[in-house]
Automatic annotation (TrEMBL):
GO terms for molecular function: rRNA (uridine-C5-)-methyltransferase activity. The keyword DNA damage does not apply. Coiled coil: none annotated. CDD domains: AdoMet_MTases (cd02440). S-adenosyl-L-methionine binds at residues 279, 308, 329, 377. Residues 44-67 are annotated as: Disordered. The active site is at residue 404. This is 23S rRNA (Uracil1939-C5)-methyltransferase. Belongs to the class I-like SAM-binding methyltransferase superfamily. RNA M5U methyltransferase family. It comes from Desulforhopalus singaporensis. The keyword Methyltransferase applies.
Length: 449
């Protein structure tokens, strides 16, 4: 099949447009899913291309006064910050327009909560190391829609301390005879470096993702790295020798420190491990959780479920305003972090369980257990019909849905409507400035109360 690769500007709302990459062949449009190794993709076919997609050469989608020169020199190649070629104000308008198009049928979209200083906000930073036959060892980020590594010295949305540590590790590789991973041959040692930073605690975790548990000279390497960066609190060797696009492997060896760091969010301390999820923008997360607590309308008498609970951030923040909090999370490392964080904060009315959120809710419904409020913060792909159907069986008065995927959120809100829930408020938060992504907090209330 012959594909002609084009950028298609898909018009969502008025002058605001949202860019995706498609291939066109005959009268079919194919969306390329590029999360497959070595550039392979699985196409999904869409027939009957709308007329507005037949001519992809659309005019610029930004008002002239909102166009700026992207401050990042890697903007064109990287593709991570899709909205950096416009003012911050215009980037917020684009996100609001996208949400209005996707979620407007459920109710009014509140003005997006912006970030005062939308730079260096990421507390989780990642750099890929690769061997290139022409250039040798390279480290940086993948170019958009590819596995080509773009050498990046400074990412403007990452914490600068992380960039400095990554640069130091790259400079040490030759003297410690460390090789970079070659994706084509499967040879080489260092695949990725992952940095996690506690913005409040200033604790830093370094995760070295390597292909083998054998690490010659690891003690000297750790000593040399810590000499240059004494702010590092723990260093972890993560072993990932699989042919996979997943960054982290299953096995870890702690080379220095406790194997986790701590940080403070909403006046509570949290333990963060290499594999557990913690919101990447703590400044905006506090604003998001404040809105979530407002929507929950807790009085201290409620039984609350924190679904997809991660390391327990939402549940522990809610614990001081509710009678009982139950957390459920599939990631075992995150559950252990949540349990330790509960002890760290002297929280006795919150328990955290390892398991699938849908199955957990089904079990609760079968046992006749009751809930007053459900917080749900699923991955970008959204929740499941099983989980949402279980909400309909247990009948909590309120559901607070936190989403980083507007498309899956729209689908799930339709399912929740079928379970007798109405949307009362939709509040977007700019958790990911300069990118196309947006976090949305939705309050739902049961129709028959």
């Amino acid at each position: 099949m012959l594909f002609h690769y084009l950028y298609i500007q898909v018009d969502f709302c008025g002058r605001h447009r949202y860019t995706k990459r498609y291939a066109i062949t005959g009268l079919n449009i194919v969306k390329l899913l590029t999360d497959y190794p070595s550039g392979r993709f699985q196409p999904t076919m869409k027939k009957n291309i709308p007329n507005r997609l037949r001519n992809p050469h659309s005019p610029p989608d930004k008002p002239r006064e909102e166009v700026v020169t992207p401050p990042c020199p890697y903007f064109r190649d990287c593709g991570g910050c899709q909205l950096q070629d416009r003012t911050y104000r215009e980037s917020l308008r684009v996100k609001e327009a996208r949400l209005t198009a996707l979620l407007g049928r459920f109710g009014k979209i509140e003005p997006i909560i912006s970030m005062k200083t939308p730079w260096s906000y990421r507390n989780k930073c990642h750099s890929t190391f690769a061997y290139d036959r022409r250039f040798g060892i390279r480290n940086g980020l993948y170019a958009e829609y590819s596995h080509r590594v773009i050498p990046i010295d400074r990412c403007l949305i990452q914490d600068e301390r992380a960039d400095n540590i990554i640069a130091t590790i790259a400079s040490m590789m030759k003297s410690f005879k460390m090789t970079a991973y070659n994706e084509q041959t499967g040879q080489g040692f260092l695949r990725h470096v992952l940095i996690k930073i506690g913005f409040a605690s200033n604790e830093i975790m370094v995760v070295l993702v390597v292909t083998s548990n054998i690490f010659p000279g690891k003690n000297h390497f750790v000593k040399a790295l810590r000499k240059k960066h004494p702010e590092i609190k723990t260093i972890i060797q993560n072993i990932n020798g699989e042919d996979t696009t997943m960054v982290l492997g299953k096995r870890e060896i702690v080379l220095f420190g406790k194997g986790w760091i701590e940080d403070t969010l909403c006046n509570m301390k949290f333990q963060i491990s290499a594999k557990s999820f913690f919101q990447i923008n703590p400044v905006q997360t506090e604003k998001l959780y404040e809105k979530a607590m407002e929507m929950a309308r807790l009085t201290g008498r409620e039984i609350v479920l924190d679904a997809y609970s991660g390391i327990g951030t939402i549940g522990l923040v809610a614990s001081g305003r509710a009678k009982t909090v139950i957390g459920v999370e599939l990631n075992g490392d995150a559950v252990r972090n949540a349990q330790r964080s509960a002890r760290l904060n002297n929280v006795t009315n919150a328990t955290f369980h390892k398991g699938d959120a849908g199955k957990f809710m089904e079990s609760m419904a079968k046992n006749g257990q009751k809930l007053d409020v459900v917080f749900m913060d699923p991955p970008r792909s959204g929740s499941t019909q099983t989980f949402i159907h279980s909400i309909g069986k247990i009948k909590p008065r309120r559901v607070v849905y936190i989403s980083c995927g507007p498309e899956s959120l729209a689908r799930d809100l339709d399912w929740l409507r079928q379970e007798n829930y109405d949307v009362k408020k939709i509040q977007p938060v700019d958790m990911f400035p300069w990118t196309e992504h947006v976090e949305t907090c939705v309050e739902l209330r049961r129709r028959d109360i």
